[in-house]
Amino acid sequence: MTNPYSATQWLQLSMQQQGLLQPFESLPALLQQLSYVQIDSINVVERAHHHVLHSRLPHYATSMLDQAMGDKSVFESWSHAAAYLPIEDYRFSLYRKQQLQQGDKHWFEPEHKVMREVKARITDEGPLNASQFKHDADVKNGAWWDWKPAKKALEQLFIQGELMVARRDKFQKVYDLTERVLPSHIDTTVPSDCEFAQHLIKRYLVAHGFGNLQQIQYLRKGLKPLLTKTLAQMCEQGDIASFTEPHTRQVYFYTRVYRCH
Fold first, then answer.
1. Which one of 4, 24, 185, 245 has the largest count of C-beta atoms within 10 Å of its C-beta?
2. Contact 53, 65 (CB under 8 A)
């Protein structure tokens, strides 16, 4: 297939799918469209993720994100980075969480004894943040690689799915047991390889309008063969279409999202 649209139409499509041409009615609807919003500590006027939401949602206020976390329409997880995601996508976060539970490494080696102690405190005391765990005052604390053992344990339990972020207090994560945070109606079936790959592809193409393999697999190690196979299958089935750009990369897209003229 040859390139079906002009550069202007591709730009219009990208802006349309990113919610920059027509405002959204609610924060959950916006997150459904974007797939996720990366959480960013950069704070110029306001933290970066709030800029993303403010530019797409009329009358946005930072309290709306706290409210969405409170009513459990969104949740925090690790996408390609720390992010807010629609709660309906929770089961797809289990794909990576299962791998981590089975021994895959995220940032550092799990300290299982500390993890058990940290989880036991949260089980008994309820939601806690990292500052509520004592540590050696002589241990350097700064960047994430200098985190105290309890903070590492909290993050490992979070990234594996045993804990969730219940809320944030002054941008600090407050952790609780997953079963006390996750709504009871949410599907917790771990997706198959095929289901997970299709989810990534569909989410990316709906959020951006089009993309290539390198973009879809961004910062997701080991998924290239699976995504390559799934993209080919989806093209054969007519779920998506593709064309080859001048630099020989296949560009994939959903024809049904086009409203360009």
1. 24
2. yes
State the DSSP H helix or E strand holding residue 11, giving kind and residue range, or none if neither. helix 7-17
**Beta-carbon contacts of residue 206 (< 8 Å; ≥ 6 apart):** 17, 33, 35, 254, 257
210-211 β-sheet, strand order? 210-211, 250-253, 241-244
Q: Could you state, in order of their start, the residue ranges of all structural domains in the chain?
A: 1-21+192-261, 90-181
Mention every residue, 6+ apart, whose C-beta is less than 8 A from residue 97.
159, 160, 161
Tell me the backbone φ, ψ of residue 46, rounded to 5 degrees: -155, 165
Please give the Cα distance from 133 to 212 (Å, whole number). Answer: 44
Share of the chain above pLDDT 90, in %: 66
Domains 1-21+192-261 and 90-181 in one fold:
yes
Contact between 208 and 254 under an 8 Å Cβ cutoff? The reply is: no
HEC assignment per residue over 57-74: CCCCCCHHHHHHHHCCCE
The percentage of residues in the chain with a pLDDT greater than 70, rounded to a whole number, is 92
Residue 21 Rama label (left phi>0; alpha psi -120 to 50; beta) = alpha
Residues of the chain with pLDDT under 50: 138-146, 257-261
State residue 81's pLDDT score. 85
Residues 46/62, Cβ–Cβ less than 8 Å:
yes
The fold adopted by the segment(s) 1-21+192-261 is: Arc Repressor Mutant, subunit A (1.10.10)
